[in-house]
Design brief:
Radius of gyration: 21 Å
Structural class: alpha/beta
Helix content: 40-55%
CATH superfamily of the largest domain: Bacterial extracellular solute-binding protein, family 7
CATH class of the largest domain: Alpha Beta
Number of helices: 13
Distance between the termini: 42 Å
CATH topology of the largest domain: D-Maltodextrin-Binding Protein, domain 2
CATH architecture of the largest domain: 3-Layer(aba) Sandwich
Shape: globular
Oligomer: single chain
Order of helices and strands: EEHEHEHHHEEEHEHEHEEHHEHHH
């Protein structure tokens, strides 16, 4: 496994902003689940470009796509220990933020940003810093999670008894139980063959993941239920971040925001392109009425949301999540 510790080396450097320490350079080792070509990874490449250019080479960024540095929980631990400096993933390492992914709780990326920029989000970020030494830096976009299947699905009742591959998290499992399906956790690497051989009837993922993994090659239908809007979280080792000179902290923060914006624009284009390509390959796209799916999962939101946050905080989160922004 390729895991490289932070390297701080002396160098002369070019002309530096006033007050900066021109004798030190920094390396950021930045891991992710995303693969080259995915919008989230393109956003990371934009981050690298901006950081290295605006820091005049005082920060060098190394990117490691496709889980080269290990599984998500392993990368979270590496950021916590400081053996890598940054990572992006759909798992945050803190349940209070992870469960914002409850079905139909958050309407879109702007709702995530408003909540995480509120006092609620600030408190969670401080908890993450205190408990794990990790700082939440921002988001990278992913499209809503949708469903593919070997048969048409227009209502939750159409999923009755179907085996649907889901990740091994309770909110995924409980969501598809509420739809009437038989949720079947398995590793991502096994999904294509399981779909091809009929071990499972379908799976759920964002459109860009479905296309890049080739699931449309072994599925006949894509059902746009948009049941979860779940971006990737960008995390940075807090000791590393606070150890940067102020001007470099500003560059890192600004570069992430620019990378996120770039990735969102690209993702919007990719969603349309990938869906069109899947249709051309013979996949039928279904846009069902979402209200029956929203209603079917109300108990999942209520039960798990109250369990994680308590009733009062859950209601505050729900109010932000359901805003039209």
């Amino acid at each position: 496994m390729l895991v490289t510790a932070l390297v701080v080396t002396g160098c002369g450097g070019g002309k530096q902003p006033a007050g900066s320490d021109s004798e030190e350079t920094y390396e950021i080792h930045y891991g992710t689940w995303a693969s080259d070509g995915e919008a989230a990874y393109e956003g990371m490449e934009k981050f690298k470009e901006i950081v290295e250019e605006e820091s005049d080479g005082r920060i060098v960024v190394h990117l490691y796509p496709a889980d080269q540095l290990g599984k998500t929980d392993e990368q979270v631990e590496q950021v916590s220990l400081g053996t890598i400096q940054m990572m992006s993933s759909g798992w945050f390492g803190l349940d209070e933020m992870e469960y914002l992914s409850l079905p139909y709780l958050m309407k879109g990326p702007d709702n995530w940003r408003e909540l995480l920029g509120s006092d609620i989000g600030d408190a969670w970020n401080q908890e993450l810093i205190d408990e794990r030494g990790i700082r939440f830096l921002g988001l990278l976009p992913r499209s809503p999670r949708v469903l593919t299947a070997d048969r048409p699905i227009n209502t939750p009742e159409d999923m009755d008894g179907l085996k649907i591959r889901v990740p091994e998290r309770d909110y995924y499992v409980e969501t598809f139980k509420a739809f009437g399906a038989r949720p079947t956790p398995m590793s991502f690497g096994e999904v294509y063959t399981a779909l091809q051989t009929g071990v499972v009837n379908g799976q759920e993922n964002p459109i860009e993941t479905i296309y890049s993994a080739g699931f449309h090659e072994v599925q006949d239908y894509i059902i746009l239920i948009d049941y979860m809007t779940k971006p990737a979280f960008v995390l940075i080792n807090n000791e590393f971040y606070e150890g940067l000179p102020a001007d470099l902290q500003e560059i890192v923060t600004k570069a992430h925001l620019e990378g996120e914006k770039y990735a969102q624009e690209l993702l919007n284009q990719q969603q349309e392109e990938y869906l069109a390509k899947m249709k051309e390959a013979g996949v039928e796209a279904i846009r069902p009425d979402l209200q029956p799916f929203i209603d079917a999962t109300e108990s999942v939101r209520e039960n798990l949301g109250t369990k994680v946050w308590g009733k009062e905080l859950y209601e505050k989160i729900k109010a932000i999540g359901q805003k039209d922004l």
